[in-house]
Amino acid sequence: MVRSTVIVRASDALPLAASVDDEQTEQALQEHKQQSKLIFRRITPNSEPRCSIESGQYTLHYLISDGVVFLVIADKSYPRKLAFSYLDELSKEFANTYGPRVETVRKPYAFIGFDTFMSKTARLYRDTRTATASSGLDRLNDDLQDVTRIMTKNMEELLWRGDSLDRMSHLSTSLRSESEKYRKAARNINFNAMLRQYAPLGAICLIIIILLYWRFG
């Protein structure tokens, strides 16, 4: 069953539209909606355009199209083919309605009016039997026929990978900082060594100059 949907801009994860969920759904999906925010932050230009991320009794399916991320939270038992067919319909309608304006908006949920289309489409896809029996839904796009090609991940894996990347980033920053400290220390050591090597000679030359100045000045 389709539970909740959110649409964000891929470049900065700005929310563009979302389904209006009742209080019970909002409470039940609170953790998974937080996880969806993590997914949006992990999106990069090299991310898979279609991906399913399993998390407990739900699966978060997302589709990236024209710089926009469409994500639906659905029951784990809900067919992936239907989930991505649903997202595909949303992406096409959204592109036709708001496409040119996506990169210009600055306020979150600028296209909240898209909820009307989302709600209508979600009702068709909400139940598996209803979805497969609805007119037109049995003719899925060719690129959705083989769902095994869609990347599947686990939320724990994503969290671990993100945590590892954060640790690696912190470690890299620390190494750069330590490297800079070592370079400064090396320069100071070399300068002090040079002073110890040439200071006596410089002192002798200075004394000679003073004596010559005193004698012939």
Automatic annotation (TrEMBL):
Which parts form a coiled-coil structure per UniProt? none
Q: Which residues are in the V-SNARE coiled-coil homology domain?
A: 136-196
Species this protein is from: Hypsizygus marmoreus
Instruction: Provide the membrane topology annotation.
Output: Single-pass type IV membrane protein
The Swiss-Prot or TrEMBL record describes its family as follows:
Belongs to the synaptobrevin family.
Listed A to Z, the keywords are: Coiled coil, Endoplasmic reticulum, ER-Golgi transport, Golgi apparatus, Membrane, Protein transport, Transmembrane, Transmembrane helix, Transport
| Molecular functions (GO terms) | SNAP receptor activity
For this protein, the parts annotated as crossing the membrane are 198-216
The cross-references to CDD domains, in alphabetical order and at most eight, read: Longin, R-SNARE_SEC22
Origin: domain of life: Eukaryota
Q: Where in the cell is it found?
A: Endoplasmic reticulum membrane; Golgi apparatus membrane
Q: What is this protein called?
A: Protein transport protein SEC22
Q: Where is the Longin domain positioned along the sequence?
A: 6-118
Please give the biological process terms from Gene Ontology that the record holds.
Answer: endoplasmic reticulum to Golgi vesicle-mediated transport; protein transport; retrograde vesicle-mediated transport, Golgi to endoplasmic reticulum
Instruction: Supply the source organism's classification.
Output: Eukaryota, Fungi, Dikarya, Basidiomycota, Agaricomycotina
CC terms in the record's Gene Ontology section = endoplasmic reticulum membrane; Golgi membrane
Among SMART domains, the record links this protein to: Longin
Q: Read off the SUPFAM superfamilies from this record.
A: SNARE fusion complex (SSF58038), SNARE-like (SSF64356)
Tell me one Pfam family matched here: Synaptobrevin
